[in-house]
Amino acid sequence: MTAAEHQEASSARAVRPWEVHAVRYATLAARKSDLFYRYEAYGEPDADVEMAYYFWILRRDGETIVVDTGFDPAVGARRGRTCVCPPVEALERLGVDTTTVSTVVITHFHYDHVGNLDAFPVAEFIVPKRELEFWTSPLASRLQFASHVEAEEIASLRQLAAEGRVRVTEGTEEVLDGVTAVAVGGHSAGQQLTIVSSGGGDIVLASDAVHFYEELELERPFAVMHDLERMYAAYEVLRGLARDGATVIPGHDPEVARRYAATGPGPDGISVVIA
Q1: CA 108, CA 114: separation in Å to the nearest integer?
Q2: Mean pLDDT of 19-36
Q3: Closest Cα to residue 61, out of 16, 92, 120?
Q4: Residues 195/10, Cβ–Cβ less than 8 Å
Q5: DSSP class of residue 117?
Q6: 3-class DSSP state for residue 190?
Q7: Contact in structure between 153 and 128 (CB atoms under 8 Å)
Q8: pLDDT tens column, 94-134
Q9: What is the pTM of this model?
Q10: CA distance 187 to 234
Q11: Do 257 and 5 form a contact (C-beta atoms < 8 A)?
């Protein structure tokens, strides 16, 4: 099923809408030349840029789904990131009991998306098949790949798979009613989008398929990538979804929290309601 086919199928049947929360838990002060691939090619002066770190919560009729799990605060500190609120504490402040969450969707395996896995003792983890295959392969140990993950977290994911607590997705697949995973690759081997049906239309949680609005609008690839060609192709998928009426939410842009703060401030002070 393609992303367009997903939208057509969803519109043809009644789907109970989800409420989508973006939870900002950390920040990083950087330079554009640090974050955008070959930034010097644009012939523009360098500039300061703020990078925000999010995970997402989907809520509907008493059901709660978590999309990505943020980084382990100790790992973030070692990597020079400022933790605004530890992810598990943020979830608690939002009234989410991680010990009872039944489903966690993982968009890719980089350290800032798969920390704190042991906080979800009963959850099934929905992960991209290509991502699991790549990060448990010998090639993933090469420095330029391995520097973006934590070996212990990859080992945890491998163990969860061995225990039968991992469900893999491939291509475009509706993983839950009103929640569709779309594998695009590019940033990471199996990077996926998460399309969520909400009361105001489809919300596309781009995760790291696009980090900033600028990255997509000006077509400026992020510095961390697995495949440049597929990264560009992912932009085309996202643009197509936007043309069809979906709202695209970048994975690391502080503007997300600003754009939605007025219409849907979260009760905890660190989240916004996207829809």
Answers
A1: 8
A2: 97
A3: 16
A4: no
A5: G
A6: coil
A7: no
A8: 999 999 999 999 999 999 999 999 999 999 999 999 999 99
A9: 0.94
A10: 9
A11: no
Sign of the Cα torsion 114, 118, 123, 125 reads positive
**Rounded CA separation 263/275 (Å):** 9
Strands, E assignment, the chain: 19-31, 48-60, 63-67, 82-83, 103-105, 124-128, 166-169, 172-176, 179-183, 192-198, 201-207, 247-250, 271-273
DSSP state at residue 42: G
Report how far residue 243's alpha carbon sits from residue 65's, in angstroms, rounded to the nearest whole number.
Answer: 27
* Amino acid identity, position 75: V
Angle of CA points 72, 78, 80, to nearest 5°: 100
| pLDDT tens digits, 40-99 | 999 999 999 999 999 999 999 999 999 999 999 999 999 999 999 999 999 999 999 999
